[in-house]
Design brief:
141 residues; 2 domains; mainly alpha
Length: 141
């Protein structure tokens, strides 16, 4: 029998309420670091060329080098952020990944026209994987 839930129950259970849709404070700040370092680095490089043009070359060289280092740091931070994996349901995610591998295996067996026994074994393993996913649903870590 199919039972439909109300929108309030579904959104509360799935975690799609207004509180979860916003980024946490630390993540919001961390997301602006690459932009801030790019602006700071570009400003430092341009200002070193414009303002230190008449002065000694050593100050300009140090300023440009520092600006480029800040730019490189910003690019590296954007490509490889320090923030950790925000997933809460890691074991469920592992089960889902295993299930996707089983789907790929099933598809390959169907393409290879494998005997029915291999397909049946994969089907049984898929049912077991779904049972594991149901058991792991809602558990953190």
């Amino acid at each position: 029998m199919l039972v439909l839930e109300t929108d309030e129950k579904t959104s509360a259970r799935s975690g799609r309420g207004t509180a979860r849709s916003r980024k946490s404070g630390s993540r919001a700040i961390v997301s602006y670091i690459p932009v801030a370092t790019a602006v700071l680095g570009i400003t430092l490089v341009i200002s070193s060329v414009v303002f230190f043009y008449v002065e000694d070359d050593l100050r300009r060289l140090v300023s440009v080098t520092l600006g480029l280092a800040i730019l490189i740091t910003g690019i590296w931070f954007a490509a490889n952020p320090f923030i950790h994996n925000g997933r809460r349901f890691i074991t469920l995610r592992e089960e889902v990944d295993g299930f996707i591998d089983l789907v790929r295996q099933l598809n390959q067996q169907a393409l290879d026209m494998a005997p029915g026994e291999d397909l049946e074994n994969t089907r049984v393993r898929m049912h077991e994987a779904v049972d594991h996913m149901v058991a792991e649903a809602g558990r953190t870590r």
